[in-house]
User: What shape does this take?
Amino acid sequence: MENAVEVGDLLVERGRRTVLHGISCAVPAGSVTGLLGPSGSGKTTLIRAIVGVQLVKSGTVTVLGRPAGSTPLRRLVGYVTQAPSVYADLTVRENARYFAALYGLGAADADRAITDVGLADAAGQLVGNLSGGQRSRASLACAMIGRPELLVLDEPTVGQDPVLRAELWARFHELAAAGTTLLVSSHVMDEAGRCDRLLLIREGRLVGDDTPAAIRAAAGTDDLEEAFLRLIRDQEAVAI
Amino acid sequence: MSLRITLATTARILRQLRHDRRTVALLVLVPALLLALLYFMYDGAGSTFDRIALIMLGIFPFVIMFLVTSIAMLRERTTGTLERLLTTPLGKLDLLFGYGLAFGLAAAVQGAVATGAAYWLLGLDTTGNAGLVVLIAVINAVLGVALGLLCSAFARTEFQAVQFLPVVVVPQVLLCGLFVPRGQMSGWLQGVSDVLPLTYAVDALIQVGRFVDATATMWRDVVIVAGAAVVALILAAATLRRRTP
Assistant: This one.
């Protein structure tokens, strides 16, 4: 299978701290790949490098065959930041229509994206008046409008109720089935099982890169949280 | 740069303003109210009021739009919308000219209301045409927007952004010829005043106050102010980085 994203020896420093210590990994095209790791592990930095807004020290990031952040990619990559980056002083519909206009799309495309994230009833409300979960769905809708080939989502399901979370994951898999590649970060291990492939990251280093089934098998446990722990212990043991 | 995206951005910024009725009311009414205050201060001294009110019609939009834009741009930065916009097909100049256009339009409304109030309610008297006063006010507002966008690149917090007002705006107001005529300033102060764009805006307004028709000096001044605004916008684009640490 072809890779939508290829990261090679990526080294990122923020201030004096090394955030990513030479990470190499890949995201297969048409998959839902989960980027899992605790808060502060470097997930957002890796994501920012992939969408091309992170200054990197060294290494390569190739997205859809082009260097990350190059101009043609801006039509092909959708990005949802961790904090919902939509305009709080506009309605959901006005936000969606503005982002649609950036891609040369119209009101119908904007409205469809709003419906897709289950916000049709709140379309006329100011984003500032929405709940946290609704806000992040509004932000998600704005990234889906341009029908990107790669959708990069930084913790999109935080604060969503369980039913909606299941619906969003179903929607992610629908998109993947239609050919979109999704990279979804999360710090909640129970979401790992919903991914086709997992990248486990801790303290700026990759500790696992496989399918959930293979990670379970390698660690000898059905519980992914436990599997993650064992992977870390094994690696620490090797290091010593 | 794309005209479609620039105009979509302008429309988006105006929609944001429309949802904020209090800001709209403040933008439209405050300059006119401050002019009324000046009118009562200079009660009976018509020619002094004429001179100062005319210059103030140019200074108000410059100061107000500088402040409004630097905060608006900082908000784009701190809420993450800027980072997101820079991953879309939007060009940096689309965003900056979008702001210039949106707040320029807001300034046209503000300038029309303030100028109308000054001439009809407060009896402002100039030799030249009131329409030219509105034109200069709008160009001044765009200059304020452009400098505000440029300065916001150097501010990380609202506190810092507000501090650029005394640094960038106040010296221009002090040296523009409002307090001390430029001819009476010492040579080096005149030299500093010569490189500050607001000086030319005020000079253009003084020309409107003195002459019936638009003079060549006035048009030269207008071109200089507009040119300074465009340069500031391009510098703002150059300081806007897609990749950040």
About this structure: Residues 3-239 of chain B form one domain. The two ends of chain B are 25 Å apart (CA to CA). Chain B is about 80% helix and 0% strand. Chain B has one domain: 3-239.
